[in-house]
Design a protein that fits this description.
alpha/beta; Dihydrodipicolinate Reductase, domain 2; about 30% helix; 9-stranded mixed β-sheet; Rossmann fold; 2 domains; 10 helices; about 350 residues
C-alpha cells in the first residue's frame, strides 16, 4: 500500500526552501504552506508552489505534521521550539543554531517533545560516505586516528549585507556556514568522540576590503561595513583518546578550491572529494610482493538533500526518531564551533564545554 503523504510546512522561504519544496514533490509528501515575515517572499512562494503562506507560524502548525526550518540561524530556536511544542517533527537546516546556548535550548525542547528534531547535515547522505562508514564499521581502516577536513572556496563570499555576513544573525561567517559541514562529517566518521581541546584562528582578509575580485559573490554588495564575520578559519581539534582533526575553512582564498576529506587509519586510509562525489582507498599489502594500492570506489551519483528529506519523512511515518543527524549530534558540533570562536578570540587553545 502507498503510505499516506506526510503534510509538511516550510518556515523561511528563501532559496533553500524552494530547493526543499522541489524535493518534496518527488516524495510521498504534501507541501501545505509556508511562513516568512517578508511579504514578497510569501507572494513568490505562493505563486510558484500554489500553497498558502503566512506571516506567523500558528496557522501552519494546524495544517502540518512536520516543519522544515530554513530561516537565518538566529531564528531557528524560535520556530523549532514552537513546532516541537505543537507536536510536529522538525528538520532544521544546518547549523542547529547561531549560538551554543540557543542550540542547547532547542535540544531541551526536543527532549520534552512528542516529535523529534533532525539537523540538516546533508553530506552524511553522500553515497561515498555511506561506503566509507560501512568499511570503517567492518574494520577495514583499523582505527582512524586523524582527519583532514577541508571546505575551501577560492572566491565565494556571500553578498555583504546579507544575513550570512552578520554575526548577530548568523552567529559567525565561513566557519558556521561551511565549517559546520566539515566538523560534522569528521566527527560522524569518528563516531562522535569526546573533544578535549581546540586551537583555532579566524581571519577576515577579503570581506573587509573596499575593492577586491569577488567572482562568485551572490546577492547585493553593501561593502565592508556590512561584513563583521570571518571569511576563513583554521583549527586543530584533539579528542580524549588522542585522535585529531585538522580543519581548513574559507569563503575566499588565494589557492585552489578544495572539498577533500582525508581519513588516516592504522590499516588503511581514504580521501573523500565532496565536490567530485568520489572516494579513493589507500592500502598496503604483502601478497606476492610488498605493494601499495589505490582503489577508486564507484557509486551512483549522490543527491544528498533528497536522501536526507527521504530519511526524515520515513521517520515521521514510523513515528520514530532517527539515530543519525540527531539534535544531540547537532549540539556536539555546535560545542566545537563555540570552542573555535573562543580559541580564536583568546589566542590560545581552549577546552570544549
Amino acid at each position: 500500500m502507498t503510505p499516506e503523504p506526510v503534510s509538511v510546512g516550510i518556515v523561511g522561504l528563501g532559496g533553500i526552501a524552494a530547493h526543499h519544496a522541489e524535493i518534496l514533490t518527488d516524495h510521498d509528501a504534501d507541501l501545505v504552506g509556508g511562513v516568512d515575515i517578508d511579504e514578497t517572499a510569501r507572494r513568490e512562494f505562493t505563486a510558484e508552489w500554489a500553497v498558502p503562506t503566512h506571516e506567523r507560524l500558528e496557522p501552519l502548525l494546524d495544517a502540518a505534521e512536520a516543519i522544515f526550518v530554513t530561516t537565518p540561524n538566529k531564528y531557528h530556536e524560535e520556530y523549532a521550539t514552537a513546532a516541537l511544542a505543537a507536536g510536529c517533527d522538525v528538520l532544521i537546516e544546518k547549523p542547529l543554531a547561531h549560538t551554543l546556548d540557543s542550540a542547547k535550548r532547542i535540544a531541551a525542547a526536543a527532549a520534552d517533545a512528542e516529535g523529534f528534531c533532525m539537523v540538516g547535515f546533508n553530506n552524511r547522505f553522500a553515497a561515498p560516505i555511506d561506503v566509507l562508514t560501512s568499511y570503517r564499521a567492518a574494520g577495514r581502516f583499523g582505527e582512524i586516528t586523524h582527519v583532514e577536513a577541508n571546505y575551501v572556496r577560492r572566491r565565494g563570499i556571500p553578498g555583504r549585507g546579507s544575513w550570512f555576513t552578520s554575526k548577530a544573525v548568523a552567529g559567525g561567517g565561513a566557519m558556521i556556514d561551511l565549517g559546520v559541514h566539515a566538523i560534522d562529517l569528521a566527527l560522524s566518521v569518528l563516531d562522535f568522540p569526546e573533544i578535549t581541546e581546540v586551537s583555532a584562528t579566524t581571519r577576515a582578509e577579503f570581506g573587509t576590503r573596499e575593492e577586491y575580485t569577488y567572482l562568485h559573490m551572490w546577492g547585493d554588495d553593501e561593502g565592508p561595513d556590512a561584513f563583521d564575520v570571518e571569511d576563513a578559519a583554521s583549527a586543530f581539534i584533539r579528542t580524549a583518546d588522542d585522535r585529531t582533526i585538522s580543519l581548513e575553512v574559507a569563503w575566499a582564498t588565494n589557492r585552489p578550491r578544495t572539498d577533500e576529506f582525508v581519513f588516516r587509519g592504522t590499516d588503511a586510509g581514504a580521501i573523500y572529494d565532496r565536490k567530485a562525489d568520489s572516494l579513493t582507498l589507500y592500502e598496503a599489502d604483502t601478497a606476492g610482493q610488498e605493494h601499495l594500492t589505490e582503489t577508486t570506489v564507484e557509486t551512483r551519483d549522490s543527491n544528498t538533500h533528497a536522501a536526507e528529506v527521504g530519511s526524515f519523512l520515513q521517520h515521521v511515518r514510523q513515528g520514530k526518531a532517527p539515530t543519525t543527524n540527531t539534535v544531540e549530534q547537532g549540539v556536539a558540533v555546535q560545542r566545537v564551533i563555540d570552542a573555535i570562536y573562543r580559541s580564536a578570540d583568546a589566542g590560545h587553545a581552549v577546552g570544549v564545554e
